[in-house]
Amino acid sequence: MSEIVNQSLQKIAKGTGIVFIGSLTGLFLAFIGRLMIARYWTESDYGVFSLAFVVLNICVVIGTLGLQDGASRSIAYARGKNESEKIQGLISASVWLGLAGSLILCLILFFTSETIAIKIFHEPALISPIRIFAIAIPFSTLLNVLVSIFLGFGRVQAKVYFQDILRNALFPILLLAVILFNLSFTGVFYAYLISLVISCLLLMIYAIKYLHSPMKFTAKSAINPVAKELLFFSLPLLGVAMLQLIIAWTDTLMLGYFKISADVGLY
Prior knowledge:
By secondary structure, the protein is mainly α. About 85% of the residues lie in helices and about 0% in strands.
């Protein structure tokens, strides 16, 4: 019994160390990306990016439907009870519920971009960035859901490699291309979109290979009894995630509403 406990503690310590290093690396790479935007573009441009980034994050959190936390917990619980069939159902439900929610948010944000940019933030320059980031919602959501699935299997490497490091490393690299080719500021948003798309697609390939069965991702298999259970468990977690997001970004949102984008960038 003590040997099992020791092995579990070692696994937890190893996983925690990997996540800690990955998170620090990801934060550093993300900081470099932000630093490049602040260095090569104006305060107003940086403010536009910050506002569009907040809007994207809010939509991704809503589109994920709380599955970022709910899926990992549900899969881990099912693994503990050796319910392999339920695990397959949870994987399918997580992927397709996340895709459905994110696609709805994608369409809503795309077609309301003008209203959000002008009526809320009084910034016409936000229209195109919001539309570009709207396309990023399904990819960012799927990235979060797949990472959550792997966490349910106790595999933290997927989060570190694809979400923390790869995504945040690709963005400054693509930004460098935007700078070298002297592209417009819109290229910054396309760079972020491409970094998400590449990270998401590579994680999908990794997930299919690891899970050994593409049937787990078919739409038909997603219609299963555990989908309702998973959704009801995850939705309250969505409320918690929204509160955390609002607390984190209230200052940027308020500045964007009451001030101009240059003030947001300066802040």
